[in-house]
Specification:
Radius of gyration: 18 Å
Order of helices and strands: HHHHHHHHHH
Strand content: under 5%
Shape: globular
Distance between the termini: 48 Å
C-alpha cells in the first residue's frame, strides 16, 4: 500500500487480487446480494485509490481497508434507504432461477437456520460476528476497525453470539 501511496498504481491491482474475496465475503454476509457485494468491493478499491494519501503505514493495511469497507457499506445503505426502491424485478432477482432454488433446497438445514438467525440480528451484531468468526479478524484489529477497545470487542462478540444462539433456538422451535 505504501507503493500505491507513492503513485505506483500498478500495485493496487495486486492488493485487489489479494483482498477481493475476503471483502466480498464480508459484504455478502451483510447483504446476501452477490452483485451488490461485487460493486461494494470495487467501491472500496476506488476509495483506497482516492484516499491513498491518507494511509500512514503505521497500522495494518487490512484494518484500514475494512474501515473503508464499513463506510462503503453504511454509505450504500444510507443512499438506498433514501431511494426506497422495491421493484418487482428486485424481488424476482432475489428468488432466482429454478436451478438456484433447487440448489438452495439441498443446503443443510442447520446452515439455513444459522443464516436466517444471522439475518435477524441487528446490523452491528451481524457485522462484529462476520469480522470475528467469518473473516478471522483478531479482536484488536476489529477494535481498530470499529473504533473501540479490544475489551469492548470481546463484549460485543460475546453478546452477539448470545443473541445469535437465542434467535437460532427460536427458529429451531418453529421448524
Amino acid at each position: 500500500m505504501l507503493k500505491v501511496k507513492d503513485n505506483d498504481l500498478d500495485k493496487l491491482g495486486l492488493l485487489f487480487e489479494r483482498y477481493k474475496r475476503p471483502l466480498f465475503g464480508f459484504f455478502y454476509g451483510m447483504n446476501k446480494d452477490a452483485e451488490l457485494s461485487e460493486d461494494l468491493v470495487q467501491n472500496v478499491f476506488l476509495r483506497i485509490l482516492k484516499y491513498r494519501y491518507l494511509f500512514r503505514g503505521e497500522g495494518d493495511f487490512r484494518t484500514w481497508m475494512y474501515h473503508i469497507a464499513r463506510n462503503v457499506n453504511h454509505d450504500h445503505f444510507r443512499k438506498d434507504k433514501l431511494k426506497a426502491k422495491d421493484s418487482l424485478e428486485n424481488w424476482q432477482e432475489r428468488l432466482g432461477t429454478d436451478e438456484n432454488r433447487s440448489t438452495e433446497y439441498q443446503k443443510d438445514e442447520e446452515l439455513q437456520l444459522l443464516s436466517m438467525a444471522m439475518d435477524r440480528l441487528p446490523e452491528d451484531k451481524r457485522e462484529v460476528l462476520l469480522l470475528s468468526k467469518f473473516q478471522d479478524k483478531k479482536y484488536k484489529e476489529i477494535g481498530e476497525i470499529l473504533g473501540c477497545s479490544e475489551g469492548a470487542v470481546k463484549v460485543k462478540v460475546f453478546r452477539a453470539l448470545q443473541d445469535l444462539k437465542a434467535v437460532y433456538r427460536e427458529l429451531e422451535k418453529h421448524m
